[in-house]
């Protein structure tokens, strides 16, 4: 049984359909990223799954429970962890006190000291919440989400306000939770975060899912032309190279749909002429390229071109 199953979900506000026939599944133990611009229906969808908002149509099951059924509300909430963008935490309580109190709401919580270690707040365990920096408060938010040892964890922009080290720590925590069997539903505006963490990605635009799949192949980004880049070696001019290329001040680049053959030719040429090639990279469309294209009003054309194996328009 999937941890989350959504079929034909609809939610309207007056004449506006904020969620218009959304369907997807999240497998148990999977990290699933729901991406979309503000106003696309992402937050409404998540709030319906969490049981905070009703729906107009569709079938929704979260851990086998209908989140719209109030009779099952307590049973569902005891298995969920929720990390919102902003949580209301009493400023005069300590980190340890806040976590201990919240742990008491769950039948089988994690140990408070274990959670403090997971979120990297050992040195602030007995500090009042009001003394924490913005990044430390964000870590505490995550701690409050995981202290109940949930089967399903909702993470809404979990690394906003964190420095690079804090982001990496949070990423490792998400990976650890998933490896232990926790299902994670993630919303983020950081495409590198979605690519680093998610097993599956769904992009929502104008209330509809416009693409879904593994981040490495979403929107056909694993197909079509690739771009080979490298720095032009000293003493070498473009006509010397074994293929037609374009260049700028930073690098030489070559766009091709037969990258393996050209890499072989380039490597053989470099060895034969004792030329050192540095800064060599091979890339296709990034996840950000796909996201911007799919949410920019041209999703249908992009999808049809990607399916045909052709490069998407820049």
Structure keywords:
single chain; Rossmann fold; 10 helices
Brief write-up:
This protein has 314 residues and is α/β, with parallel strands linked by helices.
Characterise the protein shown here.
The chain has helices at residues 42-50, 73-77, 95-103, 112-118, 134-146, 164-179, 191-197, 259-272, 287-294, 299-307, and strands at residues 4-13, 16-26, 31-35, 57-62, 80-83, 152-156, 183-187, 200-205, 208-213, 226-231, 246-247, 252-256, 278-283. The chain has a 6-stranded mixed sheet with strand order 5-6-7-3-8-9, sandwiched between helices. It has a 4-stranded antiparallel sheet with strand order 11-12-10-13, covered by helices on one side. Strands 2-1-4 form a 3-stranded antiparallel sheet, with helices on one face. The chain is globular and about 75 Å long. It is α/β, with parallel strands linked by helices. Helix 3 (95-103) packs across helix 4 (112-118). The protein starts with a strand and ends in a 7-residue tail after the last helix. A hairpin with a 2-residue loop joins strand 8 (200-205) and strand 9. The protein is built from 10 helices and 13 strands.
């Amino acid at each position: 049984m999937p941890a989350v199953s959504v079929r034909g979900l609809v939610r309207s506000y007056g004449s506006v359909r904020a969620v218009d026939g959304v369907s997807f599944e999240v497998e148990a133990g999977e990290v699933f990223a729901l991406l979309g611009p503000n106003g696309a229906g992402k937050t409404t969808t998540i709030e319906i799954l969490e049981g905070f908002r009703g729906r107009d149509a569709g079938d929704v099951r979260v851990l086998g429970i209908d989140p719209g059924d109030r009779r099952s509300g307590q049973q569902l909430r005891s298995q969920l962890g929720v990390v919102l963008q902003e949580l209301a935490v009493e400023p005069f309580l300590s980190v340890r006190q806040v976590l201990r109190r919240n742990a008491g709401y769950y039948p089988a919580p994690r140990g408070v000291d274990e959670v403090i270690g997971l979120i990297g707040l050992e040195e602030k365990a007995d500090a009042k919440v009001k003394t924490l920096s913005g990044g430390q408060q964000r870590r505490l938010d995550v701690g409050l989400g995981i202290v109940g040892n949930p089967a399903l964890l909702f993470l809404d922009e979990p690394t906003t306000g964190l420095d690079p080290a804090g982001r990496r720590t949070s990423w490792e925590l998400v990976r650890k939770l998933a490896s232990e069997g926790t299902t994670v539903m993630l919303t983020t505006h950081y495409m590198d975060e979605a690519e680093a963490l998610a097993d599956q990605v769904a992009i929502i635009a104008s209330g509809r899912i416009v693409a879904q799949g593994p981040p490495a192949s979403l929107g056909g980004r694993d197909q079509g032309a690739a771009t080979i880049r490298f720095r032009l070696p000293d003493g070498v001019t473009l006509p010397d190279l074994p293929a037609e290329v374009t260049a700028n001040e930073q690098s030489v680049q070559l766009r091709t749909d037969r990258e393996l053959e050209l890499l072989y030719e380039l490597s053989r040429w470099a060895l034969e002429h004792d030329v050192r090639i540095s800064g060599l990279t091979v890339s296709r469309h990034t996840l950000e390229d796909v996201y911007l294209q799919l949410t920019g009003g041209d999703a249908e054309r992009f999808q049809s071109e990607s399916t045909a194996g052709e490069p998407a328009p820049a």
